[in-house]
Automatic annotation (TrEMBL):
Cofactors demanded by this protein: Mg(2+)
Record's protein name: Isoprenyl transferase
Residues that, per the record, bind Mg(2+): 31, 218
Originating organism: Clostridium puniceum
Biological processes annotated in GO: polyprenol biosynthetic process
Amino acid sequence: MLKIFRTKKEHKEDFELDMDNMPNHIAIIMDGNGRWAKEQSLPRSMGHKAGMETIRLILKEATRLGIKNLTLYAFSTENWSRPKDEVGAIMNLLVTYLKKELRECHENGVRMNVLGDTSKLPAECQKVLNEAIETTKNNIKINLNFALNYGGRDEIVRAIKLISSDIKNNKISEEEINEKLVEKYLYTKGIPDPDLIIRPSGEQRLSNFLLWQCAYSEFWYSNINWPDFKEVDLKRAIADYQNRDRRFGKVK
């Protein structure tokens, strides 16, 4: 695990990417919005607003680089415990982002998806999310997955309940249970496991993110707060990923 420290002046690229060895799926824990706002003597809501602009930049760069799947951890099941005004600001920003970016995303071949229990989101959020998913459902250039009201443990518990229900209703048998079957009951059904998980802000933990799916993911940490995360940082993470020896528990 390589932890990168970058000053604001360090934007020069000192590496080359192997376009034949790009990660198929990158997942990002978008951390550091609050810290960024505090450093700027701004309300936390302004940090989340600045983070939305970073989403726009990183999505464009990921698309340009040919990344096929990008998952962004936007709001966890634990985030409901934050102050109500902050939660409200995040939800409003989500609505604003989707309304503003949907047309361009659609034109650029972005297919939008949501991981998590959206039934607990505000009605307006659910409406714009459903519209975005429906509008972009046939796009194939890049899959953009927003993890909203998402928790890895919650996802696994949900899968267990669904499997138990299907066994009870004789849709499947206990003998059929294996990893491939379990994957069909996860929010990420049909989505490949992340090759690379990126976490900015200096923290080095998963925070209940993609617990099943990250079994053999590579991790890349940085002290850069999410609003300051730039295209060059994404490329640095990919470059480091490309220099690793992925053995998946085997010996080459």
